[in-house]
User: What shape does this take?
Amino acid sequence: MAAHLPSRSVYRNTAIVLFVLLVATMVVSAVRLGVFAPVVALGIALAKAILVALVFMHLNRASRLARLFAIAGLFWFVILLALTLADYMTRSPSAS
Amino acid sequence: MAEAPLAHQFDDIVQQREAAGLGMWTFLATEVLFFGGLFTAYTVYRMSYPDAFREACHHLYMWLGAVNTAVLLTSSWTMALAVRAIATTDRRSGISSLLWTAALGTLFLLIKGVEYYLDLREQLVPGAGFRTAWSVDPSHAQMYFVLYFIMTGLHAVHMLVGVGAVLVMAFLVWRDSQVTRRANAVEMTGLYWHFVDIVWIFLFPLLYLVA
Amino acid sequence: MTTAGTLALPKPSYLAAGWSLRSWFLTLDHKRIAILYLASITAFFFVGGAAAVLMRLELATPESDLVTSGVYNRLFTIHGTIMVWFFLIPSIPAVLGNFLVPLMIGARDLAFPRLNLLSWYLFMLGGLLAVGAIIAGGVDTGWTFYTPYSTTYANSAVIPMAAGIFISGFSSILTGMNFIVTVHTMRAPGMTWFRLPLFIWSTYATSLIFVLATPVLAITLVLIGVERVWGVGIFDPSLGGDPVLFQHLFWFYSHPAVYIMVLPAMGVVSEIVPCFASNRIFGYRFIAFSSVAIAVLGFLVWGHHMFVAGLSLHASLVFALLSFLVAIPSAVKVFNWMVTLRNGTIRYRTPMLYALGFIGLFTIGGLTGLYLASLAVDLHVHDTYFVIAHFHYIMVGGAVMAYLGGIHFWWPKVTGRTYSEPWGIFSAILLFFGFNLTFFPQFVLGYLGMVRRVAEYPPEFQVLNVLSSAGASILGLAYLVPLVYLTRSLIRPPSVGSNPWNATGLEWGTPSPPTAHNFDEPPVVTGPPYEYENPQAVASQEAQNG
Amino acid sequence: MMTADPARGFSLWPESASTGAPDIDRVYIALLGLTLFFALLIGALALGFGVKYRAGAQVIRDRIIHKTPLLEITWILGPFLIALAIFVWGAVVYMDATEPPAEARAIYVVGQQWMWKVQHPGGRREINELHVPSGEPIKLVMTSQDVIHSFFVPAFRNKRDVLPGQYTYLWFEATRPGTYHLFCAEYCGADHARMRGRVVVMTPADFQRWLAADPSAATSGESESASGEAMPPTIDSPAFVRFGCDDCHQASPTPAGPALHGLFGQRLPDPSHGSATVDESYLRQSILEPNAVIAAGYAAPSTMPSYANQIDEYQMIELIEFIKSLRDAPMREALP
Assistant: This one.
């Protein structure tokens, strides 16, 4: 079992990248990006989450099934969000 | 290498471990949708009241949020080290990593508590005493804080459960003569811990970096 | 289906393995937990049923004379919440699913027996809270908890009821997790996905909905609770909230929840029909995939509950189109069941009558769903008795018929006893008749414009309401009869052989009732399911089977 | 407070009294036919196979497996095409039934537990009754003071939820004078069942007389007016002065706010949403949340304060009606 696990340095490097991304998101938030600000902030958050999932949660070497369920959770959340917003984004400001 | 005792319903240890892993991932999918409902509500109201959210966000202590993010990221790192140590029969390092993880989790909760206290002092807690000095509709600013408290509050509840689980794991590893018998349980606890970390990774920019 | 190593040794059955309270209430045996669920949901069924009886009595006249409006509002809330969350949703999955999933796939138990027991305790805790809410004055929001009524205006025990449903939701989630993991990891050697009984496919699809939809209901109920207790706005527009958002979140769960009820029912029917037609099921793969298709599509259609609620035009069009698509996998199933009858040797036993009743009533229920999905007609029939009739055809005519069919089908396996066949046939026919008399007039009432959730109505609707109430009394009787003869069958000692129906499937290879660990050795599966030996098939043609 | 239901006898088909009702009936009848067809088909299959292949019957039972998925394709493709056709038809009828014509007469409806309050543009109010002329499109501008209600007139085959905090619209054109049921279709609390009323459809001439009758004299139902053809009532708005709207929204040379005359019905370019049509919802939102939509050419944030929590639904209706009355006429300098 131990042989399947990444070495300590992989974890350390991942942690360092995570910290760099944290600093990056702080720096970016200080810059005025307008409508792109949330996109960038969420993009960085997504990168962090993927790193944690792949390395710390061993999703990169998990069974296909585990990956499938990890993605299923995300996919169904996207269904919830997308179809709800399909309503809100198409409500014109003057009509309901 | 010693393994957890085989439960009667399983044929072998591989099947048992596979079942536990899949069960945990299914549970995490459930958790995604649990928080997903909140993220959806957040998105809808942020789109409806962008100015109020921006103004309300200014009242949060961004630095406390950032420090807390760093604390949680570090705890995920120590958790990953704990899983690795216990899988490689390194009991001493495993226990200390688990304790570090629990300590960092507790630190997170303490900082969060301080932040809640500061919010309370500045009349940012929704309800009758909510501050009135807003350039936007106060009910819209209040919506931000309602979501802020529910989202961070539910996350904090998850953290409490996580700290408890990590401490239990540390105790079991300490007590058990064969440390690898707990490897699978520690790994599952780790999955949960990292998931709670990921939730915060999204909460931080959504709540603290709106401005 | 060929099995090896299932010859029963003289071991005690799971029922004989102890009679102490402890042996039941701390059992980890999936079969005993199924019995615990059976007893508890039967009790809840009669609570919800009693409320329905009072409602139908009240509706026999246009005035609110038997009960006041306030009481009536509590009655339909009791009926809805108890029937949906404490009877229908756990009915087939938690009773038949718990009993059959390990047996059908050749496992000794579910993957997580302790979680399984915990599920039942959570279910009971939730149920007791719900009953407590009823005793503490009742809830008058309807089972849908629409805001801002439920959060700001209702003066009733909303919080205990919401808490009860929240807790029982975790019971659903744990059950779903357990089934998913069990089906994935614990199938017997040779039990490939396409050798699984179709009941397993539909239970698996149901479990996906349990796991992915229930948490959204849970968080929505939390938000209701927070808004009510804390007095802050989340859905109340006077405090900046949006009541339509509540409806989105609520129906994201509650529409798929309809498929939680009807998918397992389809699974039961897919077992009964080939058995009593002595014929292999037609279009196995299409039926299997249609279960998954219904589970997935079911998540994309919730907006059809909101066409007149303020949903934008674009969203309405999208949701309407997607809603129509659900009709396709449903039609696939119905036609495949029909063709399974062809060239069979059909025995009209009690389970088969329930299954045929299901097919007929589900067809009507499904087709009337098209009226509601078509945007135009929904403008008129939304929130009328047309909707009531439609979903009762699905949930009562569909899910409850199949549940009773399944109970009758597996009763010999579960208890080792047989019931009186004439009484079984009588009550199945009575149920079909009573059901149609109750609910068919409601389609007409709905199109005439009678709205739902009213204790009073204009006098010209009385004739149809009296018909419906008369039907309800027959329906009530048809539920009591099986309760009596099934209970009576328990008095005699077990007497049934392992396979009284000559059915295929691993569960029929175990003794009736099965032993505690189901199989002494894991069975080995070597062929596809539903390999029925048709006793009257022409031998020369059988050779062409290939 | 409940108005007596219009008396009706037993019937199996609802009466029809709007231009849109036959369209919806047609879709319904088509669906009935479809239901009948499939129910008979399934019934015939079940009965046919059920009798022919019953145990004991001496028939040839062929066990050849059909290898081609032709049958499956038939009953996947068939229902799909039928579903698609009904979807398109239903959607077209729905869009007609929910999109009010531009020239429709606006009448305001405020739902509250447990009554319908109606306000006509001329100021005439009624409770649990709605008088409308036949042969003219009517647009109901609806909101609720408390919970969600739903305005449902079966004879018009149309309903719409009435939500607190926003306007929703229901439009119809009544065809036949008469009295029709009005129901609340969305459960709204204790007396939801009694939130019933009636819609009185009158000939245009009768309606004009009814409208002109003295509102205070008319308690319910029609009251005869001898004054003949009524003039459209003059609209003035005390609320427009009380809330200080006139301080900024005047046709003066240097207005602090946009002039309002001719505003209603215009299509304004709006940077954040593309464009927005000024209708009742737009005016309502602009009064309650001045910053929600800023038309192109105006500075954001607006200097106008929010009137949320100061203005009730009836004052809102008054303001909107006043703004709508300022068609092209220059604004009067002195308001009463």
Summary: Chain A has two domains: 1-62, 63-96. The CA atoms of residues 57 and 77 of chain A lie 20 Å apart. Residues 1-62 of chain A form one domain. Chain A has three helices and no strands.
